[in-house]
Amino acid sequence: MSELPPDLCFEILSRLEVGCLLRFRCVSRAWRRFIDDPIFIKLHLHRQFNAGQLILYNNIGMKHCILSLDSLNCYPTGMVVVETSRQGHESRKPTLPVPSCNGLILIPNDIENVLALWNPSTRETHVLPSYTSTVLSSQQEGCSSIAFGYDSATDDYKVVKIVVYYNQTTHECRCRSLVYSLKSNSWRKVKDCPHDVPTDRGVFVNGALHWTIDDELMIVAFDLATEDYYTLPLPSELSKLQEHSTLPILDALGECLLVTWEGSVYRLDDYGGKNSWTKLFSLSDMGMGNARLIAYSKTKEEVLLWANTTRECFWFDIENLFLKKVRIAGAQDYWYFQICQPSIVRLSNSDGVDGNKLQIEEQEEEDES
């Protein structure tokens, strides 16, 4: 490798799978520095954009299984999943993970009120510090919502928690916003959310986190760079939403914001301009109600759907309007499916964040030659 030009090394290694790169880190200190270089990590992440691994969570929140998205089309009977785990961060009841960002997943533990960032590709975990010290002791926490994304302006991963706090002294309720920075490994208060606390977990698109709000016909977004709130309109067809109607579902697919409501799927075009919506297709015509849109196939001719009522996965042929059920051997007990991009993004860095040690074999004495 030392005889190859650095640019050529970048080109070759950046196209390899995560597992190969983790093994190559053990070759020498020079190789490890090369693979751990932030510029290389970003290039590799960009090259892995169309790749995907499916994360499965079982119905008691204790097991996590991973399989390649491509493998879903390899065998008629599906693929046997490979079990993995986040050691020391198990939950006793189902815990809905926050949508992934650049290969990282934020998983709350509702029992112990703990948040942890997890990279399923490297098996690295980082437990976030408690955020309770950032609020006054005279305040009591109520309902809350959480989201996770990447701030490209500061090259930082941020967690946003919107919480209703009841001030026991003044007897007032406030919708407070807290931001966690992975670089500083700390929480801080930011501008209060001007709307009610969202009921769903936020979706990261275009440098911002997005939620739908109960009883408000709009999308509320939080810009991670400016740390300010703004609003986006919902599709005009949703103006007939009633008080007890099913709330729209937000998803991110192919770097676009999508809304699913009553089986109809809309895509937000011209983000930041006219904010116009395009109706892509309707699932209700096939007897399917609201579903989560998980990922595109490599050809983008199909979309992987998860039906939250039956807890089943389907490939949906967009052009031919055809559903094909996905059978995953050994996954009968699993209740939630999520896509996660393979990446070597680190959760430990020189800025003081100490993630758990990578769970891979590394040489004690590395070859210097």
Describe this structure in words.
The protein has 369 residues and is mostly beta strands. The chain has two domains: 1-47, no CATH class; 48-340, 6 Propeller (Neuraminidase), CATH 2.120.10.80. Helix content is 9%, strand content 41%. It has helices at 6-13, 18-24, 29-36, 38-47, and strands spanning 53-58, 64-68, 82-84, 98-101, 104-109, 114-119, 124-127, 139-151, 156-167, 172-181, 186-190, 203-205, 208-213, 216-223, 228-233, 249-253, 256-261, 264-269, 276-282, 291-296, 302-307, 312-317, 322-326, 334-340. The strands form six sheets. A four-stranded antiparallel β-sheet has the order 3-2-1-24, with no helix packed on it. A four-stranded antiparallel β-sheet has the order 4-5-6-7, with no helix packed on it. The N and C termini lie close together (11 Å).
And the CATH topology of the largest domain?
Answer: Neuraminidase
Largest sheet at a glance?
A: 4 strands, antiparallel
Secondary structure class reads mainly beta
Domains counted in the coordinates: how many?
Answer: 2
Q: What would the average pLDDT be, to the nearest integer?
A: 76
Order of the strands making up the biggest sheet: 3-2-1-24
